[in-house]
Amino acid sequence: MAQVEVTKRPTIGAKSGQLKRAVTPECRTSDKPRTMMSIILFSLVGFLATTGAADESEPLFVYPDVFNDPERDAFYYGTFPEDFKWSIATSSYQIEGAWNVADKGESIWDNFTHAGGNIANGDTGDVACDSYHKYKEDVQLIKSMGLSYYRFSLSWSRIFPDGTPASASEDGLRYYNALIDELLANGISPQVTLYHWDLPQALEDRGGFLSDEFPQWFEDYADYCFEKFGDRAKFWITFNEPWAAIAGYGEGNFAPGNHGLEVDVYTSGHNLLLGHGRAYQKYDKVYQTEQKGQIGIALSSDFIEPFDRSDPRDMVAADTVLMCYLGYFANPIFKTGDYPAFIKEKIASTSEEQGFSKSLLPEFSRDQKDMLRGSSDFFGLNHYTTTYARDSDNFEVDVNLTASPYGELGVISWQDPNWPASHSVWLYSVPWGLRRLINWISTEYGEDIPIYITENGISTEDADDLSDEMRVNYHTAYINELLKAINIDKCNVRGYTAWSLMDNFEWASGYTERFGLHYVDFTDDDRPRTAKDSARAYAEIVFDNGFPNSSLRKISFSQWLIW
Question: What number of CA atoms fall less than 13 Å from residue 362's CA on the CB side?
Fold first, then answer.
């Protein structure tokens, strides 16, 4: 197991990253007029005056060929708040393996992968990274990077094999107690996700997310976890990425693989929100006073960039998509206790057109709205990429772009193929999107709500290559944009979590896409882990708590940034 040594400042090889000046300042990806918003978001004059750039006439860029607007993309020097939380993440099904060890119950992903034909190369998570047996090694990887937090998820079917408290597993309890204790013994605080998509198959057989009983099932499960682990775990996430959690009830490309009706998507999402609300309420009323932890939810969203910020129609189009995707789950929790009004109106109108006597979107009772409103102590955000949006009546961009209508919202959305690509078709590196999304959330849901980046990362191909310059550049650029959001925009961001600790089972893509900062050899029964350049680069950033003034980085900074 190759680790990163952080008893002193980590040293990074010369290929670990590239921070360069643009060839020509005029070479930009867009000639759209600058707006007052962009000027407010980032003042180059302020940047040069406060950060001590080496050459004020030539700002530096991570992606000089595509993102080189001095007002938006210039590299920013500074450090994060002293109490900033640096973390890294995994999830149970993606790394644990041991799918049938002891009395563990079958999960929907066990069932989905074993059915065949659903996963690239017929891959499964039966062994995955074998973290069930190798968790102590994993903890040492985290410690070696200098991290003080680790986000992982619990396997519901490992804790409750049939999904209910009556089946509580001694082995499941033992395993997660051992993991938590090992983390704490090494100075690492657990950040625990209750649900990262692996529902017990026994509950799916009873209706799963479509059952009216689901909120109670989830509350019972959460209650047990709070009771057994909450004395040591002080940071809880109820659900990871609700849209992906219920994807198996609509498109069917995720477990349980049900190609459902539109109403199934609405029903499953509705029950997820009620389960979240009940779990939050349980923790708040029963455990918070004694355990003194915090609990929230991790929502996912691209940033949606208006193609032309000077065109009000595109501004509305982008905001519509953000509210429809992110606001669908965020509004009930962080704002009104209910879905966005325009979504309710749109679904009601469509339902009527389809001949239904009432809207297919379930309604929350007054008590349920009261329960949901404010049911998160923080805004957990999983963010990876950015997408353009344009009003469909105003769509005149290159017809060779892959453009797709966003439902019936009158919006066209697409990604620019000139942006730095990954090995995932949906993921392009667009660092400035993170900063803009954080500002959007702060404006929409309030400046006081703490924001945690609960996932951020990029995929590379399935290859034995430890020199992952693409990932080094990605994390460097995105973390730098996060720093701007905190120090310049004064956004209330409290922590950053990189995805992922190591290569793992990447859902329908199997092992064909690698997001890990550590390489895992899946052809070796021992599943050895080896640090990639990105692990060392991230450790360097964590050690420095950001990007100190260039004059202060005489030794280490030049070792991994090519000028």
Answer: 18
